[in-house]
Design brief:
By secondary structure, the protein is mainly alpha-helical. The protein has one domain. Helix content is 64%, strand content 2%. The chain contains nine helices and two strands. A two-stranded antiparallel ribbon has the order 1-2. α1 packs parallel to α7 and α4 crosses α5. The longest helix is centred in the middle third of the chain and has 31 residues. The protein is globular. The two termini are 31 Å apart. 38% of the residues are buried.
Length: 225
């Protein structure tokens, strides 16, 4: 598999958020704002990339029968390191994300990629696959967070000070001044509705691209006899 195909699979073709629909618990629970979504998304992408790399390194020495416990152990170590780093450097954001940081260990996306891809491929492709799958999830998280924050509070980047300190409050964008808010958008039903809209949008774009390709097929090169 080429690097270009790995990137395309992670961002679009096999996007974990709107295609595979894996890891919906953190996807729907933490995407109440752009900042929360971005924080968890980046943490997940780092864990996926590093865990894929670690699994690829040991894939030939771990017996097949105990591969899953070993993979989970590698993931757990990396999640612990990232959790401690967030606790040290972005403590307010760490408190907001709460239990969803250690729950990355049990996220089916992470374990699925280590077993399906990293255990069968070299280190660099494996790390790229994990990173792009994580970035694909992060994009969906951020889009969900933006939709829900805008509909729920009329703002974007609210809570930016949690990651960059009080001075970052000046960068919060008030899109709808005087907006009273829409409670449904920041509740679980709002998350399901927003995710459904994203899935519908992706399916529409895929169908449109397929129809365009069918209407204008690529020319077939003549083969000399």
């Amino acid at each position: 598999m080429s690097y270009r195909e790995i990137v395309r699979n992670g961002l679009w073709t096999q996007n974990t958020g709107v295609v595979q629909l894996l890891g919906l618990c953190p996807l729907l629970a933490i995407s109440t704002s752009v900042v929360n979504a971005l924080g968890l998304g980046i943490a997940t992408a780092l864990v996926m990339s590093l865990s894929n790399g670690g699994v690829s390194l040991v894939r030939n020495v771990v017996p097949h029968e105990i591969r899953i416990p070993v993979f989970i152990l590698i993931i757990a170590v990396l999640v612990t390191v990232i959790e401690m780093a967030m606790n040290a450097f972005v403590h307010p954001l760490y408190l907001v994300l709460g239990i969803f940081i250690p729950l990355i260990v049990t996220n089916c996306i992470v374990l699925a990629r280590t077993d399906a891809f990293a255990s069968k491929n070299r280190v660099v492709p494996a790390m790229l696959d994990g990173f792009m799958m994580g970035i694909g999830l992060t994009l969906v998280l951020v889009l969900l967070g933006a939709m829900r924050e805008l509909a729920g509070h009329g703002t974007l980047l609210s809570g930016l000070d949690l990651a960059f300190g009080p001075s970052a409050k000046q960068f919060v964008i008030t899109v709808l001044p005087g907006y009273k808010g829409f409670l449904l958008a920041i509740l679980p039903p709002g998350a399901f509705i927003a995710l459904g809209l994203l899935i519908a949008g992706k399916n529409y774009l895929d169908q449109r691209a397929a129809a365009k390709q069918a209407a204008h097929p690529a020319p077939v090169e003549a083969v000399a006899v």
